[in-house]
Amino acid sequence: MSSPKWLTFEMTPPKPSDPSSKLSPTSFLQATENKSPIRKRLGLKIDSPTRKKLRLDPLIQPEDQTILHYHQRLLSMPGIAEDRTKLLVKVPFDKTLDRISSLSKQMDSMLARIDSMAAEKDSMTARMDRMTVDIDSLTIFRMRSEDRELILHTANQTVLFINAVAMRTGKKLSSLESHGNSDQHAVSMRLSMAHTLWDEREWNKNVKLPHKYHDMIKDVSKVLKARNNVAHESTVQFAKLLSEPFFQDSHPGLYQYWTPVFRYIYRKSIEEIAGMEEEDVKRLFQCSPDPEDD
């Protein structure tokens, strides 16, 4: 059987005036009031069986009737420093080692679980990164699709706006000279020149909309190609898009910009047009009355 392993720590001996100084060395080690100092110094909980195994170093002698006698003898022993004021207490720690070993194994297991969780976290982070890339790709695709749709709607409404202004101010796009190799090309040429039908005075007098809408007519050629590539009736779709809160958030000011245009062309709000069918909107445009003076 292997000899026990001992752990040594220091304790402060009681003062002569302290009642515990009259206790025998063994009783002093077992005293309840010493439990907290022992636990504090060792950092471990010592059970009652282990407490009974506490030893003083050097060992107790028969003449050590009290802990005070023991300490006084200790100070008179050869080789003991005169300034030694502490008691050396030894405690067997085989069980403590077992507990430490068990705790170490538990700690190793916990660290392994932490490593596993970290690996899972890294894997999850990588998956989330891939998902983010996928979401970003979808967002970009949606934005690009939305932008293409917006270009189409903008071009359609600009063309309708030009026709409405021309009709209500007594102008004819056909009066504009156009040289093209097809009817569609000729129409596009006339639309790109439409802004020349109204000077500043006439625009202010007859159209009564801010000049930014005259500038919009000037820029119509920039969106005509996109419209001609994927042209279809889109007034209701555009109105629905402009009415959507998410679209208004992502395109601030666009709803306010187009509100006067819709009013001018159809004499209705964007929301009213959004609730109609394309054919009804087309007939509405064809029979819209002339604008009234504000």
Question: What descriptive keywords fit this protein?
Answer:
294 residues, mainly alpha, 3-stranded antiparallel β-sheet
Polypeptide structure, described:
- The protein is mainly α.
- Helices cover 61% and strands 5% of the residues.
- It has 14 helices and three strands.
- It has helices spanning 25-30, 35-42, 48-51, 67-76, 94-168, 183-192, 200-207, 211-218, 221-229, 235-243, 245-250, 254-266, 270-274, 278-286; strands spanning 6-11, 55-57, 87-92.
- α5 (94-168) runs parallel beside α12.
- It is rod-shaped.
> Any idea what the radius of gyration is?
48 Å
- What fraction strand? 5-15%
Order of helices and strands: EHHHEHEHHHHHHHHHH
Which descriptor suits the 3D outline?
rod-shaped
Count of runs of 4 or more consecutive helical residues: 14
The number of E-state strands comes to 3
Major beta sheet summary: 3 strands, antiparallel
- Fraction in helix: 55-70%
The overall pLDDT, averaged over residues, is 75
Strand arrangement within the widest β-sheet reads 1-3-2
Question: What are the segments in which pLDDT stays under 50 over at least 5 consecutive residues?
Answer: 133-143
- How far apart the termini lie comes to 113 Å
Please state the structural category.
mainly alpha
